[in-house]
Structure formats: structure tokens, C-alpha cells
Amino acid sequence: MLKIKKILIATVVICSVWGNVNGANLQEKIQQIIARKDQQKVEYTISIIDPQDGKVVYSHNAAKPLTPASNMKIVTSFTTLKQLGTNYKFVTTAGLVGNKLVVIGCGDPLLGYDGKNFVSQIVEALKAKSITQLDGIIIDSSIFDNECVHPNWPRTQINRSYSCEVNGLNYNGNCIKISAAVNNGKLNLTKSPDTEFLKMLNNVKVITKGDSAIGSNRTQQENEIIVFGKCRRPASFDVAIERPNLMFGTLLMESLNRAGINVVNPITEETVNSPEFQMVTEFETPIIEVLHNCNKDSLNIAAECMIKLLAAKTSGRAGSWQGGRDAIGSYLQTLGIDKTEFYIDDGSGLSSINKISSNALAKILLEAYKSELWATFKESFAIGGVDGTIKKQFYKDKYKNRVFAKTGYINGVRAMSGICIGTNNDKEYIFSIITNHANYPTKTAITNIVEAIVDEG
């Protein structure tokens, strides 16, 4: 009987808490959420704006800069979109200088993804010209500088797909998929794309029970990895490679050889400005497609290529992280955002050195909202309950299709910023929520805040 009473008392307390939240106004609801016992050590910066008049609906530590994780992608992607416009295209070009094949990179982060097989396209174009021998292959990736790995990315994670190198000529996300399977008691390791560019040392143990788990470590030798772990059932992972522009060159040479086109000399890296250049074929990727991969799916390389491209276009020099910082910093100041409210370090938010306030993010979103770019930019966000990184959030009918946002997560950081539509009168609200020293329940707290905003409208 005592146990039943305790359960009843606990239920009454929980119902009372939620009753208070549901009966409170928006400000009170948010204050109650961030005051939860499990959130008391979490730092919050929150801004909510009515985009129709630009007035602040709610703020909490709004000017305090915190590490934004992938909410940094909002800053990078909109600044780049504003600079280049919705019609911009990444154009990778292949041509001939004499009898040498030249491939000129444009910083396209999606080349090699999902049907974007530029290697095969080049081979077919050369076959159509009845070319059977080339004197060499020149790779020109000089649109970006030679700093391919950001100095403030976690050094223990540089072989992960989300920490891949950033190059003027990227391919397949600058990764190779490693797959392991057991056939007749023997382990079979495969690579996709299959290339000699990456060497594998097998240290995987075949097991007959338990879960499969495989991974890799780099050796001292460039593009040589040790694959380790246990395998009973098929397993796979993506590994980031070094010098991805040369991986592209190697894949191209291997494909040419298979097609009967002999390449006489080794691959070289050069900047090509020859008037003798004759285009053979090119590949285009619209910036809108890059935006979607950046914001909806949170693809880091998409953001990093955009910040370096922004630098190249605004400075006239090889795209660099420093140039991107300068360009973004200048733009933020034109919005009236104080220098104390941000520090730009990379484009994707993988660096924990990035800092920005919710006020700054909300102002960027408001600027986007008021511009002719808004429809394009909004479409790049994940939609609650529908797709992207918030497909499994806001899935209830009350919230589905009403939240358009970019999430952010690295160790100790949770963030979400975007726009949402109220359920009562379809009123829109721009919001930005960034948390540091975040814990597991922080994700729920952020979700509850956004739900409270939707309930308000």
C-alpha cells in the first residue's frame, strides 16, 4: 500500500510540473526548462525573434558567445550564398595541354558522391577522341591552399569521415569505404572505390559469436592503415585518406589503363594557366545542392569547402581558413554584430575554438529571412519529423513540418537554430539555442524549448 502511495505522489508531482509548464507563457516555459535539475550546470544562450518586426520575443544570455558545433554551418553557408548567389556552380574541368591530361579542381565537395562519377566521364570523353596514350596527368587543386587539415580539429579523429582533408580537388568525400566479411571461415577485406592508393594491413580477428566491430589506425606510411577488430557478420566504415587530389589522380589513371589508354609518366601537381589548354569535359554541381548537404545532412566537407571558396572569391588568392574567417567576420560586422560575440575558426563547427552568440545567429537568420535568398536557404534546413538531422524529432502531428533547423553536436555542445511555425495562427519565430557543458538530457531540453515556441504561435 505504501508503494502505491509513493507512485501516486510521484505521478501527481510530475503532472503538477507539466501542468505549470503548459499553463505558463513562453518566457516562463523556457525558464522552467533550463532550470531543470539536470540542466543547472549547462550554459545556455537563447534568442527568439519575431521576423515580421524584428522584435525580441525571448532572450537568455543572448550576447554570450559559446561554441556552436555545427550551427557554425549556418554562418558559413549563408555568408557564402550571399556572396556567390543561388545560380553559382562548382565546375571541375578536364582538358589537354599538348598530350597531357589536366584536371582543374574548383573545391567541389560533392564530386564522386552518388552518381557524380567524373572519372568515368573523363575516360569516356577521351575514348570518344580516340586517344590511346597520354604523356601524363596533371592535377591542379590550387584554388585552395595546402593546409588540408585544420589545426584545431581533434588529432585523434583525423581518419574519420567527418574530419576528412579539404582540398581544391575532392573525390568521394575524400574517403574510402572499408568492408569486412567472413566467407568459409576466412576474412575478406575490400575497398570502395577499389584502388591501390590505399594500402591495408589486416589485423581483424574472425569470431563465431558476439558482435562485429572494425576500425582502423594510420601507420607512419602515408595512406597505409591497419584494419583491426572482430568480424562475424559483414561490417564497414569510411576512412579519410591523405592527399585526396592524388587519390583522384590515381583512380583516373587506373581507369584509363583499364580502358586501354596508357599513361606514360607519373601524376604531377601543378598550377595550370596555359593558353594551350583545350577542354575535354567538365562537371557542374549547383551551390544549392552543396547547401542541402551542408545544412540538412550536416556534411562537414561541404561547409569547409564553402569557407575556403568564400576566401578565394573575396581575396583573389588561394582559399584558406584565415581568408574565410576574414570574409565572414567582415560580413557579421555589417549586420551590427559586435566583435565580442563571435570568433570564427573553421566552417563546419568541428573546431571547439569557434564561438558565437545566439543573438548573432538570430541576426544572420533574420537577414536571410528578409532577403530574396530566404526560400533557397530555408529549403537547405532539416525539416522536423521529415528529413535530415531532425527527422526523428518533432515527428508528432502537432510539430511535424513546422520546424526548419540546423542542429549542432560535438562533445559538450548541443545546439539548434532555425525558424519554426506556430500551431495556433501559423506565426513564424526565428530561434537560436546554443548550449555548452551540455549533457544527455540537454537534447530533450532543446527539443522542449522549440516545442514551446511552436505551441506559442
Structure explained in plain terms:
- This protein has a domain at 28-85 and 290-456: 3-Layer(aba) Sandwich (Beta-lactamase).
- It has helices spanning 2-23, 26-34, 72-84, 118-128, 244-258, 287-295, 300-315, 321-334, 358-369, 374-379, 440-456; strands at 43-49, 56-60, 89-97, 100-104, 133-134, 136-140, 175-183, 186-192, 199-206, 213-218, 224-231, 235-240, 262-263, 267-269, 278-286, 342-343, 355-356, 382-383, 403-410, 413-421, 428-436.
- Residues 1-22 have low confidence and may be disordered.
- Helices cover 32% and strands 27% of the residues.
- The longest helix has 22 residues, at 2-23.
- The protein is built from eleven helices and 21 strands.
- By secondary structure, it is α+β, with helices and mostly antiparallel strands.
Summarize the helices and strands and which ones pair or pack:
Blueprint: H1 2-23, H2 26-34, E1 43-49, E2 56-60, H3 72-84, E3 89-97, E4 100-104, H4 118-128, E5 133-134, E6 136-140, E7 175-183, E8 186-192, E9 199-206, E10 213-218, E11 224-231, E12 235-240, H5 244-258, E13 262-263, E14 267-269, E15 278-286, H6 287-295, H7 300-315, H8 321-334, E16 342-343, E17 355-356, H9 358-369, H10 374-379, E18 382-383, E19 403-410, E20 413-421, E21 428-436, H11 440-456
Parallel strand pairs: 4-6, 5-13, 6-14, 9-11
Antiparallel strand pairs: 1-2, 1-21, 3-4, 3-15, 7-8, 7-12, 10-11, 16-17, 18-19, 19-20, 20-21
